[in-house]
Model the fold of this input.
Amino acid sequence: MAILRLLILIAALAVFMLLLGCSETLVHKYCEGDQTLVTLNLNCSIKDEETKSVLADETGINDINVYILDPEGFCSCHKYCVPGKLTAKLWSKVRYDIYVIANAGYDTGIADLDDITAMRIEAESPEIASGRSGLLMSGFIQRLLPSEMTSVLIPMERCFCKINLKIDTSRLSVSKIKLDSAVLCNIPSSVMPFSESKSADIGDVFDKGFTVSGISLQSIDKKGINLYCYENAQGVLLEGNPDEKEKVFDESDTIGKLCTYLELYCTCERADGHCKIRYRMYLGNNTCTDFSLLRNREYSVSVALSESGTDEITWRVIVYGFQPVLPEPGCFFYSDTTFSSSYDEGKTCIGILYDVDTTRPAGNRYWIVGLEESGILAWSTLKDHINGLAEVGLSLELDSSSMDGKQNTYLIAETADYSENNYPAAYYCLGYTTPGFGPGNWILGSYKQLLPLYDSINRDLLLKVNSAIFIAGGTELESDVSYCMWSSTPMSESFIWCFTRYNTTAMILKSWTINVNKVRPILQI
Done:
């Protein structure tokens, strides 16, 4: 009987070990190569380093939360530390994504990709939500091998927006108007570091946020003052409104309590006494319909006061130049993640911006074309169907696969047969390296992404981009008209959509995947 019990115990233990082995296989699906201790040197590069303000530290980083995720989006390592070197035990042949949150002020805890994209950082006070203790930032870089992590540049975005306020008093007829204070109201009390963020209900706002007082109007005339708040992407809420004076909400309208606005409190001194004046402006991407304040943007607001400052016809503040400072197609893009419309020889230009759309999700708002292209390459030497890569057919229905080249390129790279020989076009793009953006950042553009560059109707963009590429010392897009340009969008199992450049036209055709053409790497940020 004792022997029987022993045999049963051994059998049960064997089953348990077998199940445990299966569990380990599932948990450690990405465990290729050897497990090694890696020392990462993280360099968080921030945009607009020359615009440091005296009111908020726009570039300082006090603490970081670092997440290293495997290809399934599971957290392989999380550290809360100061910027610099950190160690992690990783698998040598697995490509990891690194996500960083800066200036949260606390350990945000272990999180997988789904948790990170849904994460919301709460501010304990209006001062924190106004950037008084440093600006919350976020950034990521994808598909790095441990051997590529010895020096990692993480391009960071501020989760804040900045409002630069200037006041013009040259048309006032009264002797004095004194600015008592300027304040941002209804500012978000929290923000999502890696997803577009806005206040959803009245519990998500602070009534009063960044306040500046005791500054003369003369100094504001010359330099302006800067105020800050978390991103509040409310969007277009008054579609069709033609008048900035009507950019207001009824007191009973709850949506108005979620939108950020600027209030100026002034004292007007006249011969017959003095009075208090309050000016209010709802902010956004334009003066009439849009209420979005997007992250890492500077909004320039100029207020012109005229007559007495209190007459009905001038009671509403006149706002002009009220647009976010957004880069435009044709701008130079540099290794430090900044843009400029004129070439800066003191920086390293790595590409040219050719499409910008802030309504797209973060990480896909800006499309940048590389300065160089490949030699002649096959799209693939195989005719296999790639799992997950949508085939759009002759109708070219523009689904997500025709928009997101990054998704397409990563799907190609995740195939079992992926190699330089089997998928040369995608391999070239993923291996394309520039200062600030190493392997895994540049991708093979989708049909929809490449279309603006080769649009046969609107050639102005191509001319503008080629002019910038020439100035930056790159190879112009139509330097060789003997070959087409591959996209990452399949028409069928054997055909891929690509663009011709014969006679500088932009006709779209399908081509055998075993033919040879060229590719131009694209960057999405």
Summary: The CA atoms of residues 35 and 90 lie 5 Å apart. Confidence is low (pLDDT under 50) at residues 6-28, 48-54, 311-325.
